[in-house]
Amino acid sequence: MNQIQSQILQEIRRFEQGLDAGEVEILLPPGKGDYKKIEKIRRLQRGAIHTNCEIFLQIDGFCKFIFAEGSLILKTGQVLIVPAGMFHAEEVPRSAGKSFYNLVLIPSVQEFAMHTARACYRADIDAGLYMPEVEFGIKLEKNTYFGHINSMLEQLFLERNWQDLRSEIRWLLQLLLHRIVQWTNHFERILQPPFGVTHYSSPGQKVKEAIEIICAANGAAIPSLRKIAAMVECSPNYLSSIFHRETGIRLHTYILNRKLDYAEKMVRFSHVSITEIANASGFGGVSYFARLFQARYGMEPMRYRYTVGQGETWEK
């Protein structure tokens, strides 16, 4: 276990102890994600929707979260749980940029992933704001225990009065953190940007690392080809060449398919608009997204929702 992993575990233990002592405040988003009010977030031209809930542990600094029905500030030592399918945007005020540091837990039935994030200045974003950017990610090997906790959290968030179920949510979060600490020997490194240290790896290893980086993210959060190449320390053209040689699939196609896989789940299981799904999945426009979706799944997204998915039920 390396130094960064040890630091992550130390922070998880600190939050676990704080929850046990009743010293950690758990925040929940305002409202239930009214998509009729989504325009106030869309105009920010950023934000995300995830098919799994996200749990934010604010280690240092603070961060502003914007939802369809309001906003909140997540401060040092607090925890925020964002339900699956709830559109949200994050921004770090310039005054918190240098100190900002959080840990994001993402439970799912398939695996349990987590990553740390630091604030990164973005010239293309509003002046005076920083944006969270993944610093280091790890995942726990598959285990049904984490899937059960995820399912129980999702069931709680389906309740009409889930804002009043904080004690149940706190209990599940305590179980989750306790289990992570128990599984410390099963951590697997999956994503770490280079920090100026060059190391040699075979073409096959670079392809494996690229796949791990892509699979560690979803939709619009999947890094660009140029950034992936920088992470595995080679040029984009070289990475594309060896990826195709090793897998028989073009890297650009592989990334598109991963984004389409994410979009398909959103189309099938959520009531989020097709435009929002296109944006959250990392496609530039809805017409481009619809064309790719139809080419892969045989029908346009809206028709797919009502034919294959649960859209009709969600819309009522």
* Cα distance spanning the termini: 49 Å
Number of helices: 12
- Roughly what percent helix? 40-55%
Give the biggest sheet. 10 strands, mixed
Number of strands: 10
Instruction: List the secondary-structure elements in sequence, H or E.
Output: HEHEEEEEEEEHHEHHHHHHHH
Q: Using the alpha-carbon principal axes, give the shape.
A: globular
Which percent range describes the beta-strand content? 15-25%
- Supply Rg: 20 Å
Poorly predicted segments: 188-200, 311-316
How many domain regions? 2
By oligomeric state, this entry counts as single chain
SSE-based structural type: alpha+beta
Mean pLDDT: 78
Structure keywords:
Arc Repressor Mutant, subunit A; globular; 10-stranded mixed beta sheet; 316 residues
Task: Please render the helix and strand layout as text.
Elements: H1 3-20, E1 26-27, H2 39-42, E2 54-60, E3 63-67, E4 70-74, E5 79-82, E6 88-93, E7 101-107, E8 112-121, E9 129-140, H3 144-158, H4 166-182, E10 187-191, H5 203-215, H6 225-231, H7 236-247, H8 251-269, H9 274-280, H10 286-297, H11 301-307, H12 311-315
Parallel strand pairs: 1-5
Antiparallel strand pairs: 2-5, 2-7, 3-4, 3-6, 6-9, 7-8, 8-9, 9-10
What does the model show?
The protein has 316 residues and is α+β, with helices and mostly antiparallel strands. Helices cover 43% and strands 20% of the residues. The protein folds into 2 domains: 3-191, no CATH class; 200-316, Homeodomain-like (Arc Repressor Mutant, subunit A), CATH 1.10.10.60. It contains 12 helices and 10 strands. A hairpin with a 4-residue loop joins strand 7 and strand 8 (112-121). The longest helix is centred in the C-terminal third of the chain and has 19 residues, at 251-269.
